[in-house]
Amino acid sequence: MDGMSQSPSSPLYLHGYSPAEQRRLVEQAEYWCDCLILPDLPYAPGERLLDVGCGAGAVLGVLAAAHPGLVLAGIDHEARQVEAARAHLTSLGRDDVDLRVGDAASLPWPDGSFDHVYLMWFVEHVPGIEPILREVRRVLRPGGTITVNETEYESFHLWPENDDWEYLEAAMFRHFRAHGQAHAGRRLGTLLVAAGFRDVTNRLVGFHYFAQPGCDALRRHTHYTADYIAPALPEFVAMGHDAARLQRGLDHLLTIHTHPHGAFSQMVYRARARA
Ligand SMILES: C[S@@+](CC[C@H](N)C(=O)[O-])C[C@H]1O[C@@H](n2cnc3c(N)ncnc32)[C@H](O)[C@@H]1O
Q1: Quick count: other Cβ atoms within 10 Å of Cβ 12?
Q2: Residues 6 or more apart from 214 whose CB is under 8 A from it?
Q3: 255 — phi, psi (to 5°)?
Q4: DSSP state of 43
Q5: 62 in contact with ligand 1, CB cutoff 6 A
Q6: Within a domain: residue 5?
Q7: What CATH number has the domain bearing residue 140?
Q8: Per-residue model confidence as pLDDT tens digits over 155-189
Q9: Does residue 121's CB lie within 6 angstroms of at least one atom of ligand 1?
Q10: CA 45 from centre of chain
Q11: Atom 16, ligand 1: which residue's CA is nearest?
Q12: Host H or E run for residue 159
């Protein structure tokens, strides 16, 4: 991890802010675009959308392409992310996005400023999310929508089973729990209710891939997963885990697509609600 700023509501951000990580965020949003980010969004041209914890602008870029009439804004507490977001969105022809450096617990917009808010892979990084969700509701107009996508870091199941992979998954879970919320997805429904949202739903979306000739989906998903686990291995070791076992677990993840019975399952949650 490189040097990073902290806000009152967030601990150290576990993925760091390197250019490589910023590129990974852009590739990640493109990866999840059709199956998770875009389905069933009730957005109309001219409506105003805020992305909270916008990172490198990856999700804003996907939303801008699919809904070119939206008026977009984003906030992240790290200046390097906002700078990267500005460059990314400008490269997509969107130099009109209202991007700000700031803490999500104190959003710099008046009440009712937005028709929609989007949060993706954000709640998992914030242990004290409750005040932020109340703040998000404040900047939404009455009836405005919130969409929140999160996973759960105990829901990754591989076949064939492998003790070293399970050891690595447990290390990843501990790491996320130390920095944020490893169970973010399953908590979204009640968190939104507690923050005063209505019409709350939290839909469980399962992803399952298996080895089959001519299909690259399993390799793509396991390699996408490895791309964010691998940079964190030194931190898992610093937490007391065995480096050799972690590496064997990662190697298992990276090679199951070559196994005739290789398979991977993961749960993701997609919560929706109205202010
Ligand atoms: C995993 S990134 C996700 C970025 C983006 N939503 C995406 O999916 O590409 C999480 C981002 O949340 C930001 N963040 C964490 N806590 C924050 C806070 N309290 N206020 C604003 N941004 C925060 C981090 O700096 C980081 O850029």
Answers
A1: 14
A2: none
A3: -115, -5
A4: -
A5: no
A6: no
A7: 3.40.50.150
A8: 899 999 999 999 999 999 999 899 888 999 999 99
A9: yes
A10: 25
A11: 10
A12: strand 157-159
Contact (CB, 8 A) for 27 and 59 = no
Token pair recorded at residue 47: 């409506």
The angle at the Cα of 157, spanning 155 to 162, to the nearest 5 degrees, equals 135
Asked if residue 73 lies in contact with residue 48, where contact means CB atoms within 8 angstroms, the answer is yes
Instruction: Classify residue 156: in a domain, yes or no.
Output: yes
Alpha-carbon distances, residue 161 vs 11, 59, 101 (angstroms): 33, 33, 43
| Position 7 in a domain | no
Q: Is residue 3 a part of any domain in this protein?
A: no
The domain in which residue 217 lies consists of 19-274
Is residue 2 within 8 Å of 16, Cβ to Cβ?
yes
Q: Whose CA is nearest to atom 8 of ligand 1?
A: 120
- Per-residue pLDDT of 5-30, as tens digits, reads 444 444 567 788 999 999 999 999 99
Q: Cis bond leading into 160, ω under 30°?
A: yes
How many domains is the chain partitioned into structurally? 1
**pTM for this entry:** 0.93
- Ligand 1 contact via 53 beta carbon (within 6 Å): yes
The pick from 5, 10, 26, 148 for probing ligand 1's pocket by mutation, whose C-beta has the most ligand atoms within 8 angstroms, reads 10
Q: How far is the CA of 160 from the centre of ligand 1 (A)?
A: 34
Distance from chain centroid for Cα 19: 17
Asked if residue 74 lies in contact with residue 99, where contact means CB atoms within 8 angstroms, the answer is yes
Q: What is the pLDDT of residue 249?
A: 98
